[in-house]
Amino acid sequence: MPSILNIAAYRFVAIDDAATLRGPIAARAEAAGLKGTVLVAPEGINLFLAGEPSALRGFLAWLEDDARFAGLAAKESWSEAVPFARLKVKLKREIIAFRREGVDPIGSPAPLVDPPTLKRWLDAGHDDDGRPVVLLDTRNREEVDYGTFDGALTLPIDDFVQLPEALEAERHRLAGATVVSFCTGGIRCEKAAPLLRDLGFGDVRQLEGGILGYFEAVGGAHWQGGCFVFDERVALGPDLSPVGKGGEAA
Description:
Blueprint (H helix, E strand, L loop, with lengths): L3 E9 L5 H14 L3 E7 L2 E8 L1 H12 L10 E5 L7 E5 L20 E2 L1 H10 L8 E5 L3 H4 L2 E3 L13 H6 L2 H4 L3 E5 L4 H12 L4 E5 L2 H9 L4 E3 L1 E2 L6 E2 L14
Parallel strand pairs: 2-5, 6-10, 7-9, 9-10
Antiparallel strand pairs: 1-3, 1-4, 2-3, 8-11, 12-13
């Protein structure tokens, strides 16, 4: 059985002392022997870390002693080796760059759709009100190449900041539909879904926990291929083990 625990977690929360917080987080993670990336910004925290299970869980427990991070939901997967070369703890302006003024995922989030509900809608071919469901992939074209939901609306973008403009050409496909946006772990949709609602794209929601959360909860139903991840494993299948393009075992 693989012995290295990998976690992905984020939280949008006001952090007034981001610059001060960076140092203790870096010291604690380094002492635990962890590798990966932690981003700290005034809008929240974003973590991709790997290490020995008890050390990593101990680090998360320490982090959650801060009330701002209590109950932080971490998505877990396993690997034979640590898929990161080093530890990086960075201070950023945003934990996911979008460069859009007025987007407030803390104070004005979009509604969530949990994975079992989305699967039920996709099984039925409509939502609970009988409206068609459009799955909106907010990831870039390189990520999409590894896999996506059956019939999802994908966009020819190379960077998340390009999404609103690219979607304008597809506005007609969203009319009268319940739009469920999704990304790897949910973080991009925390910004994209509220903005798209404000821009008049209709009933836009976000998949709770993203693709990895969907895999954890319901497996690979209505999914084709793998999910690109940002480490040396490259992509994970619905069982959260490494796969190649098209979903073949790595």
